[in-house]
């Protein structure tokens, strides 16, 4: 019986899936099974995987989305722990071995994650812990309030199968931030382990169209913020500490401010004002009052926020979505 089940969902990633599978087969820890869930690919993914069928379990299903694909893999899993890898990302050879050592050291943990580097087309690699979330640690740590940290990236996750089943697997109604939603729910039943070693690589692939401030792009960002608010509101209904509740309220407030900025750029000025006010109402503070006032300043306020964010920017999640 394998100790780890590696779940790889894929959809039309024929150019990358073999590298992902090979990165698992190159692991120094070998007590695992690989489950590839093909979510209705129309390219030659299945053909390319034929030589690997004696090393993987291949499941094909009609296209239902990444959450449904991961859940199909979870249902087939036999391991005590489940690792997730996206089909266009890769692991470094020592990843699973390091995480097994970590969970042996902290047996009460329900999730282990590591640092990860984001590899761009022609740009320098960027570390999640160092440049994205400023989560600087020098050694593996047990995180006792993981809901208040944004350091979990899906290709690094090793999670306890029983705990995943207990909180309800991935929410198939969510089309974005479905991973954050599950990590939030897992944080209510146990502690997380964070390992500072870069043990995975995520790739920013060339897009078919330019990402710009078009109405289509802004609408996508608006949908992202709305979905994230739903995730935060969902977790706020759990039995959280006062500190955690405060943190969630602040994150919801931040999302409403972003919605204000987006709607202003879409020239929906009245709606933008409503979102700025909602930002303040959800989390009244001097900072959100300043945001509300900036929102009243029109383009000048938007420019001030944009310049400040550019100065602080390391690597925003939206760049890899």
The appropriate CATH architecture of the largest domain is Alpha-Beta Complex
- The sequence of SSEs as H and E is EHEHEHEEHEEHEEHHEHHHHH
- CATH homologous group name of the largest domain: Spore Coat Polysaccharide Biosynthesis Protein SpsA, Chain A
- According to CATH, what is the topology of the largest domain? Spore Coat Polysaccharide Biosynthesis Protein SpsA, Chain A
Concise summary:
The protein has 321 residues and is of the alpha/beta class. Helices cover 44% and strands 17% of the residues. The chain contains 12 helices and 10 strands.
Annotation keywords:
Serine Threonine Protein Phosphatase 5, Tetratricopeptide repeat; disordered C terminus; 17% strand; 12 helices; alpha/beta; 321 residues; single chain; Spore Coat Polysaccharide Biosynthesis Protein SpsA, Chain A
Per-chain topology:
Layout: E1 4-10, H1 17-25, E2 32-38, H2 45-49, E3 57-60, H3 66-76, E4 81-84, E5 90-91, H4 95-105, E6 109-119, E7 126-127, H5 128-132, E8 141-143, E9 158-160, H6 161-167, H7 178-187, E10 191-203, H8 215-236, H9 242-265, H10 269-282, H11 286-295, H12 299-312
Parallel strand pairs: 1-2, 1-4, 2-3, 6-10
Antiparallel strand pairs: 4-9, 5-10, 6-7, 6-9, 8-10
Report on the architecture of this protein.
The chain is an alpha/beta fold. It has 2 domains: 200 residues, Spore Coat Polysaccharide Biosynthesis Protein SpsA, Chain A (Alpha-Beta Complex); 105 residues, Serine Threonine Protein Phosphatase 5, Tetratricopeptide repeat (Alpha Horseshoe). It contains 12 helices and 10 strands. Strands 1, 2, 3, 4, 5, 6, 7, 8, 9 and 10 form a 10-stranded mixed β-sheet that branches. Helix 7 runs parallel beside helix 8, helix 9 runs antiparallel to helix 10 and helix 9 runs parallel beside helix 11. The longest helix has 24 residues.
């Amino acid at each position: 019986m394998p100790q780890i089940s590696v779940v790889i969902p894929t959809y039309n990633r024929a150019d990358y899936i073999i590298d992902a599978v090979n990165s698992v087969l190159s692991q120094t820890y070998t007590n695992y099974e690989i489950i590839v869930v093909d979510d209705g690919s129309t390219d030659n993914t299945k053909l390319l995987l034929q030589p690997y069928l004696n090393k993987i379990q291949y499941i094909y299903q009609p296209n239902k989305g990444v959450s449904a694909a991961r859940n199909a893999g979870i249902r087939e899993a036999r391991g005590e722990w489940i690792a997730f890898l996206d089909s266009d990302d890769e692991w470094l050879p020592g990843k699973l071995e390091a995480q097994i050592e970590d969970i042996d050291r902290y047996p009460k943990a329900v999730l282990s994650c590591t640092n990860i580097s984001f590899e761009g087309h022609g740009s320098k690699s960027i570390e999640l812990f160092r440049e994205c979330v400023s989560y600087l640690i020098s050694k593996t740590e047990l995180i006792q309030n993981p809901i208040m940290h944004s350091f979990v990236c899906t290709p690094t996750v090793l999670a306890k199968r029983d705990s995943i089943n207990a909180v309800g697997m991935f929410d198939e109604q969510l089309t974005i931030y479905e991973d954050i939603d599950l990590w939030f729910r897992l944080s209510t039943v146990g502690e997380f382990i964070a390992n500072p070693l870069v043990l995975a690589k995520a790739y920013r692939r060339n897009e078919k169209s330019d990402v710009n401030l078009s109405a289509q792009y802004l609408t996508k960002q608006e949908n992202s913020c709305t979905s994230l608010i739903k995730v935060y509101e969902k977790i706020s209904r759990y039995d959280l500490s006062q500190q955690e509740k405060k943190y969630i309220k602040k994150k919801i407030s931040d999302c409403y401010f972003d919605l204000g900025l987006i709607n202003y750029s879409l020239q929906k000025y009245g709606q933008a004002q409503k979102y700025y006010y909602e930002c303040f109402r959800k989390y009244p503070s001097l900072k959100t009052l300043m945001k509300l006032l900036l929102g009243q300043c029109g383009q000048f306020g938007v420019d001030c926020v944009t310049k400040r964010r550019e100065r602080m920017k390391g690597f925003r999640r939206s760049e890899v979505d």
